[in-house]
Design the sequence.
């Protein structure tokens, strides 16, 4: 049966956290096998997350709070407030595996530098890292339609990432997640439902080429290594967001398979698996995630809370 809205909201957040936690121990490793990942899924003890989940929780809380009755009519993202909230989360737990550029930005923001200035301190043209995309999925629940989701995604990402490719990555991941939420989970997933709206929202030749490749590979039998070679698997937004989308499209209705594919592709495994997990969880719902692994997620209580608020 088709999952309910709240089941999908839970699937989105828990799928993201599961991908992050499982992917974290394989970051940068080559030759990761299915058996290695299965072992990680079935281990005991808490599954701890990295910056991807930590900042997703901040954005989810921000969106949930600004949805309250007292904020009716205001924008879903207050950039000045969000910049401070993200920087405070870094300051509280700087050991969660943050990128080098964003670490400097967050430190400057906590010291009082305006975020627009702080985010160009290391990279004058802004960061093209995937940090805006990795945390963006909750905006798919907050926006009413594709246009609104794209705008929220841009605003949520621009407080740390000024480079156009980082913003394109956030819009791509948010819009794809919104589309996944809206599809009937009992019917086959068609790539053609994703590519035209993504092309519309992301106006960039580089990204249009990536979407064409994703469409081609989604209907092929490429293995994760070949997918990484074709699309990239690094910390840049264009080098990771398309691979996450492909991981989902190759395994519709099977969130664990999507996450495993993303991890086996290597490189920035926590982030690609987090983004693939968000897409797959939004489509299939919480009940489709593996109960044992999900029960070990460190952030479980907050993930449930924000899923209910945002659903
Ligand atoms: P970021 O803004 O620091 O960007 C990440 C990295 O991308 C930077 O440290 C640079 O190496 C590179 N980069 C970005 N923009 C430019 C530019 N304009 N010129 C040259 N190099 C650039 O942080 P972020 O939040 O975007 O990064 C997210 C990633 O960092 C995620 O993968 C997250 O898990 C974390 N992370 C990644 C790794 C890894 O190497 N795979 C390790 C630890 C943490
Ligand atoms: Mg991480
Ligand atoms: Mg409020
Ligand atoms: Mg990462």
Sequence:
């Amino acid at each position: 049966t088709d999952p309910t809205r709240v089941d999908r909201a839970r699937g989105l957040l828990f799928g993201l956290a599961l991908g992050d936690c499982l992917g974290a121990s394989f970051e940068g490793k080559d030759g990761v096998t299915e058996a290695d990942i299965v072992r990680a899924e079935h281990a005991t003890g808490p599954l701890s997350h990295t910056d991807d989940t930590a900042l997703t929780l901040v954005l989810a809380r921000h969106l949930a709070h600004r949805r309250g009755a007292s904020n009716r009519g205001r924008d879903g993202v207050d950039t000045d407030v969000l910049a401070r909230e993200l920087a405070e989360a870094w300051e509280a737990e700087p050991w969660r595996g943050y990128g080098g550029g964003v670490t400097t930005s967050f430190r400057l923001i906590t010291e009082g530098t305006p975020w627009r200035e702080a985010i160009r301190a290391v990279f004058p043209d802004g960061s093209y890292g995937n940090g805006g995309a990795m945390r963006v999925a909750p905006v798919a629940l907050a926006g009413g339609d594709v246009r609104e989701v794209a705008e929220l995604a841009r605003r949520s990402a621009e407080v740390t990432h000024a480079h156009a490719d980082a913003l394109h990555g956030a819009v791509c991941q948010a819009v794809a997640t919104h589309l996944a939420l809206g599809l009937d989970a009992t019917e086959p997933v068609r790539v053609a439902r994703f590519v035209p709206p993504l092309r519309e929202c992301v106006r960039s030749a580089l990204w249009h080429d990536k979407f064409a490749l994703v469409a081609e590979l989604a209907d092929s039998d490429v293995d994760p290594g070949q997918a990484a070679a074709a699309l990239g698997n690094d910390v840049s937004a264009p080098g990771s967001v398309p691979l996450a989308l492909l991981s989902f499209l190759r395994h519709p209705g099977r969130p664990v398979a999507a996450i495993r594919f993303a991890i086996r592709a290597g490189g920035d495994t926590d982030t690609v698996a987090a983004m693939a997990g968000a897409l797959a969880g939004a489509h299939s719902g919480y009940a489709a995630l593996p109960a044992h692994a999900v029960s070990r997620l460190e952030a479980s209580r907050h993930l449930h809370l924000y899923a209910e608020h945002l659903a």
